């Protein structure tokens, strides 16, 4: 089973998301880089303090310790040592003093057990601030930063737990985690607003395109001061102007042609009727004239439909509105269907007394076109179902007939002018494919609509909606 493609996001949303993504990447990179730089800066500062700091004691004895002599150290030197290192008083700080002969002079209680011993720093003859070594030692309690320095009396090691520094960095990361999403929302919202303002001319253009109908070709899109959209709007307005001019010319031509053909066809029809009465009944001449008269009547019907369609295209179809008993009108046309196709099984459910406000002649033509179409494209020994009922403030006329399954192309072009569908499904009744198109135009002129409704295979269902009469 194939999966349907996911709907594509709108351009405005994509611009906002891309802006937020780019800003998020930049903020995340800034957060990572700044965190690393701040950590390194704090670590360098701690290293500098570790190198400068000496164990607290009497001023004259700082850094001078005799083997086994702790007289120069206070009882608990770690808090003072933490303060000298710029750390909280409760921070874990360790002090280890080893004499020249390797004996331990002093070792803090919290001295990490992982640092069991310290390697001697060479060349201890360079005074109190002789050679030194910095290193980071990993322990179960966390990493410790250790400095080992040589003194005239031996080795001095000061260790500081980096947990306090890591907590500071964790606090900074939490601040980033709280502020960056808020900044991304602000950036995304700002990008959404800016994109909406930037795409405003496009929305106006879309609204104008949606309003382009046969009666709305005179509309124009207001000029936009933005230079990016001005050429597009000018080109669209020029296209509308060309379409309006071409449509008016085509509409005038079809209307004028139909009007000019109407008079000679009427005269020709009258002359043929008179000639038929003058020739011998049943003669070959009368049969020929009858056939010609049928063709003239057929041509007159086509001209009349073309004239109505041209008037509908121009929005000039005039209707004489009056109350019409729609139920009785449909019933009368169904009686004609029994004569047109007596082999069809007709079922009717007509609600009595349904009245509409409209032109009786035009509405009669609509129902006649629909019923004729149902008989023309029906199946042998087929059926027709007709229903008329009220639905809210409208009357709904439903006509369903048996037919061969409609293809997607046939369903989409059912109301196109001069479209007749598959010739194999047509019966002996002739036509030019104008009936359904004209019926829909008349329905729309009355404030209603005609559409093909969904139906099972082997059926065609047309629904006509018209506004009910207020009376």
TrEMBL record:
PROSITE patterns (UniProt xref): HAMP, HIS_KIN
| InterPro entries recorded | HAMP_dom, HATPase_C_sf, HATPase_dom, His_kinase_dom, HisK_dim/P_dom, HisK_dim/P_sf, Sig_transdc_His_kin-like_C, TCS_sensor_his_kinase
User: What region holds the HAMP domain?
Assistant: 196-248
| Entries under CDD domains matching the protein | HAMP, HisKA
- Which EC number applies? 2.7.13.3
Q: Does the keyword Aminoacyl-tRNA synthetase apply?
A: no
The residue ranges crossing the membrane are: 15-39, 175-195
The molecular function GO annotations come to: ATP binding
The UniProt annotation puts the region (Disordered) at 52-84
Histidine kinase domain: which residues? 256-470
Q: Where in the cell is it found?
A: Membrane
Entry keywords, A to Z = ATP-binding, Kinase, Membrane, Nucleotide-binding, Phosphoprotein, Transferase, Transmembrane, Transmembrane helix, Two-component regulatory system
Recorded hits in Gene3D superfamilies, A to Z, give: 1.10.287.130, 6.10.340.10, Histidine kinase-like ATPase, C-terminal domain
Q: Taking the first listed entry, what is the main subcellular location of this protein, grouped into a coarse class?
A: membrane
Reaction catalysed by this chain?
Answer: ATP + protein L-histidine = ADP + protein N-phospho-L-histidine
Q: What is this protein called?
A: histidine kinase
Organism of derivation: Leptolyngbya subtilissima DQ-A4
